[in-house]
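W.,

You were right to be curious about this one. When I first looked at the sequence I had no strong expectations either way, so I just let the prediction run and decided to look at it fresh. Below is the sequence, 213 residues in total, followed by the output.
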Amino acid sequence: MTEIFPPAPPVGTPMLPVRPSSEVRKFLSLRRSANKIALAEPGPTPEQLDHILDAATRVPDHRRLAPWRFIILEGEARKAFGEAAARVQQEEAPNASEDAIENTKKLPLRAPTVIAVISSPKDDNKTPVWEQELSAGALCYNLLLTANAAGWAGCWLSEWITFSDGINKLLGLDHLERVAGFIYLGTSTMDPQERARPETASLISRWTGEADS
């Protein structure tokens, strides 16, 4: 299969610092997550997903630590994960309703491809963990962009399975690792509507060199 993205050049190759592109500007200004209830088959093939993930890793990464990794849920593994997650929920939240338990079982079945992006900071005593976690967040967003550019709809969700010690154990995370988010990829069955966006001007200030009074 032809690669979806151009291959990376050899290490040390001089690179352009900017790549002006009207198409990319339009792509970024119109980016929109898919509706989580409107993702269906097909999803990317394993080979296509490999190419998407390879391109997605081109994010800021101080000292080249690669402080993240992927856990992919596909096929029947999605159902198995949902069943196991429901058991975790029953242990961690004994008062959870039957509806909540059933909903947990269905979470990984929302899309044909589910990727848990794992923040996996390296304890090098040099690079702040927060900085490494920010890199994992950048990776989540870049994964959405690369998937969209490759023709797949997606959304980035957290929910309780992102913040559960039991789920961390189920996924085999070590003590420094945690889930940065679950990325759901597939084919959208409906066009998402534009949503309200913040007024950027209200979020901008310019420091003048003087402390605020």
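Here's what jumped out at me. Residues 35-80+110-189 form a domain with the NADH Oxidase fold (CATH 3.40.109.10). And, maybe more interesting for your project: Helices lie at 22-29, 46-56, 76-92, 98-106, 129-149, 165-171.

Coffee later to discuss?

I.
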